Inverse folding.
């Protein structure tokens, strides 16, 4: 191997008149090497050695390689996939390229969000701390961080039970005076029972909390903690900069100091955004957060009810409708001062205003099956007959109004009879018969039929006739 210094020395000696033999003896190098360097200088005027760069065949497939690595494929499978894409290099070259560029460790995606779009939550272990009863217990710090502004809420707790998890969320929303659209979280059991990618199953109380506060829980993909990297950084920051090296005599002292420290932390220049979190929060994010619900969330008052055949459940001597597909099922009911929320398999299926008296039916007619709604008194049924009569002519439309006025709720019976006359008579003839009936104040189907049977609809009307309106 000829270095730059030795290469330059050989060229310098040659320029001073030394022969190739003399240079080889002085430099203790083979004459062929000396001759090759001098020839390169004479033919191409190259006075310094040029580095040889070997371009790996894998580099042309760098983007495809990243994509395959993200799919968690082994190097063998990646080699097979790249071959199908046109890669003709060796397997060992592929391994060397992955090791050299450290792709698996260094490749990641940075997630960006809009103001109020997302918050990330997590617990962090902070060792043994005194609780409110002066007992040393294993403690955790809860962090909810707004992803856009990096505005933080922290709270010390002594377990990760469902009640604690929910209360931490509620306290954080109150601290922010609003609710973000999405909560990015880990797959801890207090929130996610089954982290299935397509349909994760949430802990039922956490799902109800999400419905109550109108946010979307979004679990990270399994083994992808970088998807909530902002809160991971928040936990690391509070552990290293507040809890590390501090000893608190009691729980109250720890809480007071944590609150004061959080205010300072939210007022610092953030290392990534180069902005103060509290300024970003007040300027761009606070006004965009969802409103806090007026009703306080409660986990206590949940009741089971079976949906009756009439699509209603009974609660406190009142009746609330449920979609027909749940007939015969047991549903869960959450009751507050003003609302009744009905759940099936932890999914909110209907919300009703709570009745203020007894024996009240609160019914959404759309909860009945469509075929069951096709009867008198339902919108679908009434609209069909009204539409058909209006199509037959202006006088038939006027007759419809007159029937509804004279026959009240039973208007559909004579209306149905008039429509059946279309089997024998044309719409024009029926319209004329309705005009004559209106002239004499007739709202009887049988008399309209006699007008047609006797051809009286062709007779001239009395002078000064005005159609009767409803």
């Amino acid at each position: 191997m000829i270095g730059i210094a030795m290469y330059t020395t050989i060229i310098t000696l040659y320029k001073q008149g030394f022969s190739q033999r003399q240079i080889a003896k002085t430099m203790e190098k083979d004459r062929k090497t000396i001759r090759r360097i001098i020839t390169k200088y004479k033919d191409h005027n190259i006075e310094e050695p040029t580095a040889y760069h070997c371009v790996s065949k894998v580099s042309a497939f760098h983007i495809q390689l990243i994509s395959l690595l993200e799919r968690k494929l082994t190097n063998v499978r990646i080699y097979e996939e790249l071959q199908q894409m046109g890669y003709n290099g060796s397997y060992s070259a592929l391994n060397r390229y992955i090791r050299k560029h450290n792709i698996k460790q260094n490749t990641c995606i940075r997630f960006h969000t809009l103001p109020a779009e997302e918050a990330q939550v997590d617990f962090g272990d902070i060792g043994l701390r005194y609780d409110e009863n002066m007992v040393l217990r294993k403690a955790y710090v809860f962090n909810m961080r707004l992803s856009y502004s990096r505005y933080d809420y922290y709270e010390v707790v002594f377990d990760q039970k469902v009640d604690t998890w929910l209360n931490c969320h509620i306290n954080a929303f109150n601290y922010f005076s609003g609710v973000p659209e999405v909560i990015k979280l880990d797959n801890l059991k207090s929130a996610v029972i089954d982290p299935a990618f397509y349909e994760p199953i949430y802990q039922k109380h956490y799902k109800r909390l999400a419905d109550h506060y109108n946010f979307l829980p979004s679990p990270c993909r399994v083994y992808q903690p970088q998807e909530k990297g902002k809160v991971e950084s928040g936990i690391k920051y509070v552990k290293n900069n507040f809890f590390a090296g501090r000893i608190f005599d009691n729980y109250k002292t720890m809480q007071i100091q944590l609150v004061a420290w959080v205010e300072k932390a939210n007022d610092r220049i953030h290392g990534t955004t180069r902005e103060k979190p509290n300024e970003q929060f007040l300027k761009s994010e606070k006004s965009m957060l969802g409103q806090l619900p007026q009703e306080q969330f409660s986990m206590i008052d949940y009741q089971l009810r079976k949906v009756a055949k009439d699509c209603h459940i009974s609660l406190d001597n009142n009746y609330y409708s449920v979609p027909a597909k749940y007939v015969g099922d047991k549903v869960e009911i959450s009751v507050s001062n003003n609302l009744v929320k009905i759940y099936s398999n932890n999914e909110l299926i209907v919300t009703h205003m709570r009745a203020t008296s007894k024996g009240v039916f609160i019914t959404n007619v759309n909860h009945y099956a469509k075929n069951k709604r096709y009867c008198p008194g339902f919108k679908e049924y009434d609209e069909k007959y009204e539409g058909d009569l209006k199509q037959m002519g202006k006088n038939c439309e006027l007759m419809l109004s007159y029937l509804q006025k004279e026959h009240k709720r039973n208007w559909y019976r004579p209306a149905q009879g008039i429509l059946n006359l279309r089997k024998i008579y044309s719409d024009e003839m029926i319209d004329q018969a309705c005009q004559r009936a209106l002239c004499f104040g007739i709202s009887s189907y049988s008399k309209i039929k006699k007008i047609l049977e006797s051809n009286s609809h062709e007779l001239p009307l009395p002078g000064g006739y005005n159609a009767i309106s409803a």
Q: What stands out?
A: The mean pLDDT is 84. Residues 122 and 199 are 21 Å apart (CA to CA). The longest strand covers residues 118-130.
